[in-house]
Amino acid sequence: MQQLRQMIETVIDEKLRGYVIRPKAAAKPVREGKFVFPEWLEPNRDVWDAWVEARTRAKHPPTDWAKSLAVSKLEQLKAEGHNPRRLLADAAFHNWQSFYVTREQ
Question: What is the pTM of this model?
Answer without folding.
Answer: 0.66
